[in-house]
Design brief:
Order of helices and strands: EHEEHEHEHEEHEEEEHEEEEEHEEEH
GO molecular function, one term: sarcosine oxidase activity
CATH superfamily of the largest domain: FAD/NAD(P)-binding domain
Cofactor: FAD
Bound molecules: flavin-adenine dinucleotide
Domain FAD dependent oxidoreductase: 10-352
Helix content: 10-25%
Family: Belongs to the MSOX/MTOX family.
Protein name: Pipecolic acid and sarcosine oxidase
Radius of gyration: 21 Å
């Protein structure tokens, strides 16, 4: 094992997913010396992956999320449709949040929705919120562009180096499968593997890793749900327990991506082992949804891929310092909706790590909110 004694980094970031990359980017932008370590070769959304696209829409709860998404991405395709009943709390709150923050949107009553989107057939009484500034992000391309930018700005990325040991202190010492490094601070953005790294550091967060089946559905008539079709989120709590979301046919020609916002618990190291999650309830729910509401699609998935969500009990992120080691910062639990906010997450993790003034109130994201949870060992 080689250790270059004189190389003290300002920060080491573990995990080159979108959150680790944006954190590293903020270090390089602020002229700090930073090393990004990734266990697999060429990281593009490989692990808790999002594939080629990810939707960006505003969450109904409307705190930091709605304030920050405008700042998060400047380029994306436009249009998103949230479908549901106006009386539903989440639907209602989303309308209020959009109005409160002055985000352009339009409510479609059930009749208008039917006229505008004849290829969607909804349950009686269901309308839609049309938001022209929502849309799809090209996740792999975004990650690749960001890694190129980090390198241009002088950041160092080591792919294929798994972090095997972290010795807290000042400096913090990080050992990987090939070398040992030291830094003034450490940021852990290891997605589903976060608790594995935290165990020797004396804490376990209440994170649940879910295997998500990413399904693509074939158009009966090519082009029916193509480029002009919006991204959508279906919120039908009376009929389906979790959200269903979809993106127009673009990753695979003629195949629309429609997924269930939930999955089965999985060990992150067994994600690709089908026997780890033999339960296909989610796919059955999706098949029923497609059959009933998207009559122009074949009701069996043509392609099924998988990736992972790392969920917290309240679905809010964890953005905080380690309770005992202040120079170790954790960004975790993005609960299936972290991609769109990654530019802001990276900024906040940088601020926490460099002891800069925080741009946002992080109370909803602090670890201490879980101190009474069974699974938390803080
Ligand atoms: C199917 C799917 C759809 C999604 N859709 C959306 C969406 O529409 N909108 C949205 O905003 N978000 C979406 N998300 C969520 C979003 O993709 C995640 O929130 C985000 O990717 C989490 O990024 P991350 O960097 O925290 O984790 P990851 O992408 O999992 O990255 C963590 C990295 O850490 C590395 N690592 C772990 N342990 C070690 C170690 N010991 N040493 C070195 N490296 C290590 C891993 O290899 C991995 O590359 C979706 C996610 C999925 C799975």
């Amino acid at each position: 094992m080689a250790m270059t004694q004189w190389e003290l980094y300002d920060a080491i970031v573990v995990g080159a997913g979108i959150q680790g990359c944006f954190t590293t980017y903020h270090f390089t932008k602020n002229k700090r010396k930073v090393l990004l370590l990734e266990q697999v070769m060429s990281a593009p959304s490989a692990q808790g992956c999002v594939g080629d696209s990810s939707c960006s829409h505003r969450r109904a709860d409307g705190h930091i999320f709605s304030q920050t998404e405008h700042q998060a991405w400047s380029q994306k395709d436009l249009r998103i449709l949230m479908m549901g009943r106006k009386e539903e709390a989440e639907f209602h709150t989303t309308l209020d949040t959009l109005s409160k923050h002055g985000v352009e949107h339009k409510y479609f009553d059930p009749e208008e929705l039917k006229r505008c989107f004849p290829n969607i057939r909804l349950p009686p009484g269901h309308g839609g919120i049309w938001e022209p500034s929502g849309g799809a992000l090209c996740a792999d391309k975004a990650l690749k562009a960001l890694q190129d930018l980090i390198r241009q700005l002088g950041g160092v990325i080591h792919d294929g180096e798994k972090v095997t040991e972290i010795k807290p202190g000042f400096p913090v010492t990080v050992t990987t499968t090939t070398s040992t490094y030291q830094a003034k601070s450490l940021v852990i953005t290891a997605g589903p593997w976060t608790n594995q790294l935290l165990l020797p550091l004396g804490i376990q967060l209440p994170l649940q890793t879910l295997r998500i089946n990413v399904c693509y559905w074939k158009e009966k008539v090519p082009g029916t749900y193509g480029e002009n079709f919006p991204c959508f989120v279906a919120v039908f709590p009376d009929l389906i327990p979790h959200h269903i979301y979809g993106l127009p046919a673009r990753e695979y020609p003629g195949l629309v991506k429609i997924c269930y916002h939930h999955g089965n618990k999985v060990d992150p190291d067994e994600r690709d082992c089908p026997s780890a999650s033999p339960d296909l309830t989610d796919v059955r729910i999706l098949s029923g949804f497609v059959r009933d509401y998207f009559p122009g699609l074949q009701p069996q998935p043509a392609i099924m891929e998988c990736c992972m969500y790392t969920n917290t009990p309240d679905d809010n992120f964890i953005l905080d310092r380690h309770p005992k080691h202040a120079n170790i910062v954790i960004g975790a639990g993005f609960s299936g909706h972290g991609f769109k906010l990654s530019p802001v997450v990276g900024k906040v993790l940088y601020e926490l790590s460099s002891e800069s003034t925080l741009s946002y109130d992080l109370t909803p994201f602090r670890i201490r909110r879980f101190k009474h949870q069974d699974k938390a060992s803080l």
